[in-house]
Amino acid sequence: MRQKISLIKGEPRAMPQEFSDEIGLRPATAADVPLIWSLIGELAEYEHLRDQMDATEQGLQDALFDKQAAHALLLEWQGRTAGYAIYFYSFSTFTGLSGIYLEDLYVRPAFRGKGIGRAVFTRLARKACEEGCGRLEWECLTWNAPSIAFYEKMGARAKNDWRGYRLSGDALRTAAGL
């Protein structure tokens, strides 16, 4: 089970202004799709959800580059691939503002603890502030204690008053009357 977490505009954030020169965050290109797909597989393994991974390279190509429904960053440490992040824009009727939703943040185990995840949050929080977004949100599996501790150290708070729902597969087709 994932819990929804958010950084709300105006709340304190314990994030650095800059990050190490050894960390690279770059927008992914279409040529990176096979690498992104492979990294998503690594994340699915880590989350014990590999059996639920239906993504294909073509689907990623369509979503990230043809339709531009989401954006991907490749994370690097000393020039080596350290992970990825995928985010998209959302909207809140309560705030009347757009937001950024971080769908995935994955840092390979060998690169954890080097400030890469913090650099991603710094980059996305700045982007949200510069673009007038009201929040940065994401979800985290409830058993993932290291990630939860990291998020809370940044000043994020779990949204325990909301429960997420999803329609997918047969349930989605049934709801669509198909």
TrEMBL record:
All residue ranges annotated as the N-acetyltransferase domain in the record: 23-178
Keywords, ordered alphabetically: Acyltransferase, Transferase
Annotated Gene3D superfamilies: 3.40.630.30
DNA damage is among the record's keywords: no
GO molecular function, one term: N-acetyltransferase activity
Domain of life: Bacteria
Presence of keyword Lipid biosynthesis: no
Pfam name, any one: Acetyltransf_1
Family, per entry: Belongs to the acetyltransferase family.
PANTHER family per record: DIAMINE N-ACETYLTRANSFERASE, GH14572P-RELATED
Protein name: GCN5-related N-acetyltransferase
Protein source organism: Ethanoligenens harbinense (strain DSM 18485 / JCM 12961 / CGMCC 1.5033 / YUAN-3)
